[in-house]
Specification:
This protein is α+β, with helices and mostly antiparallel strands. It has a domain of about 100 residues. The chain has a five-stranded antiparallel β-sheet. A two-stranded antiparallel sheet has the order 3-4. A hairpin with a 4-residue loop joins β5 and β6. The termini are far apart.
Length: about 180
């Protein structure tokens, strides 16, 4: 089926081929296909038709979330008040998921990982080859998880999932007895 062309082909009886196509033969070379034939050049770029309705707007809370998470990782370990840092980052201490389950924050877990070796399967699938990586190919990653208890078990959520919880944290109430004279 031939669809998507927005131009007419003008066939000329001379051996020069199509107008605008360079010096292609009048008849295709066996095994060649359309505008991508050997010696020819592409004369137009095909792009799929995009829907006419505008794309849905991205949630501004999720824009550049990877950069926000990296900044959180950088600052959390040095924060003099980790509780306030969590509040500032929008991580609830008591959160509710879409199913109505409450999650209570127990701890923030960070881990450093460094890849120093690679494993590659051997041809035929019988075993693997291991190679230590040279220094310039090693990679470092820091990961972040929030350990919540959901009433039955500990659930670990990533930064995005923790921030998606509906905040059900109640303000703590501390009662002081009036001073006695």
């Amino acid at each position: 089926m031939h669809r998507g062309h927005d131009h007419d082909h003008h066939h000329h009886p001379h051996a020069g081929g199509h107008a605008g196509h360079g010096a292609q033969p009048a008849h295709p070379v066996p095994g060649s296909v359309g505008h991508n034939a050997p010696g020819g050049r592409a004369v137009q770029w095909q792009t799929p038709h995009l829907p006419h309705e505008p794309a849905p707007a991205a949630d501004p809370r999720t824009l550049d979330l990877d950069l926000v998470e990296a900044a959180f990782l950088e600052g959390f370990g040095r924060a003099p008040d980790p509780v306030s840092f969590l509040r500032l980052a929008g991580v609830p201490f008591v959160g509710e998921d879409g199913d109505g389950r409450r999650h209570h924050l127990l701890r923030v877990e960070t881990a450093d990982t460094m890849d120093v070796g690679a494993v590659m399967p051997l041809l035929g699938g019988e075993g693997v080859r291991y190679d230590p990586l040279p220094a310039k190919l090693t990679s470092r990653r820091r990961t972040l998880q929030f350990a919540y208890h959901d009433g039955r078990q500990v659930v670990r959520l990533d930064f995005s999932a923790a921030r998606r919880l509906a905040d059900r944290t109640d303000a703590a109430m501390v009662a002081f007895d009036p001073p006695t004279p």
